[in-house]
Amino acid sequence: MSKNLTKRSEDYSKWYNELVVKADLAENSGVRGCMVIKPYGYAIWEKMQAALDTMFKETGHENAYFPLFIPKSYLSKEASHVEGFAKECAVVTHYRLKMAEDGSGIIVDPDAKLEEELIVRPTSETIIWDTYRKWIQSYRDLPILINQWANVVRWEMRTRLFLRTAEFLWQEGHTAHATKNEAVAEAEQMMNIYAEFAENHMAVPVIKGLKTETERFAGAIETYCIEALMQDGKALQAGTSHFLGQNFAKAFDVKFTSKEGKQELVWATSWGVSTRLMGALVMTHSDDKGLVLPPKLAPIQVVIVPIYKGDDQLDAISERIAPLVKELRAKGVSVKYDNRDTYKPGFKFAEYELKGVPIRLAIGQRDMDNGTFEVARRDTLEKETVQADEIVAKIEFLLEDIQKNIFKKALDYRENHITEVENYDEFKEILENKGGFISAHWDGTPETEERIKNETKATIRCIPIDVKPENGVCILTGKPSKNRVLFAKAY
Amino acid sequence: MSKNLTKRSEDYSKWYNELVVKADLAENSGVRGCMVIKPYGYAIWEKMQAALDTMFKETGHENAYFPLFIPKSYLSKEASHVEGFAKECAVVTHYRLKMAEDGSGIIVDPDAKLEEELIVRPTSETIIWDTYRKWIQSYRDLPILINQWANVVRWEMRTRLFLRTAEFLWQEGHTAHATKNEAVAEAEQMMNIYAEFAENHMAVPVIKGLKTETERFAGAIETYCIEALMQDGKALQAGTSHFLGQNFAKAFDVKFTSKEGKQELVWATSWGVSTRLMGALVMTHSDDKGLVLPPKLAPIQVVIVPIYKGDDQLDAISERIAPLVKELRAKGVSVKYDNRDTYKPGFKFAEYELKGVPIRLAIGQRDMDNGTFEVARRDTLEKETVQADEIVAKIEFLLEDIQKNIFKKALDYRENHITEVENYDEFKEILENKGGFISAHWDGTPETEERIKNETKATIRCIPIDVKPENGVCILTGKPSKNRVLFAKAY
Ligand SMILES: [Zn+2]
Ligand SMILES: [Zn+2]
Question: How far is it, in rounded angstroms, from Cα A313 to Cα B172?
Answer without folding.
Answer: 41
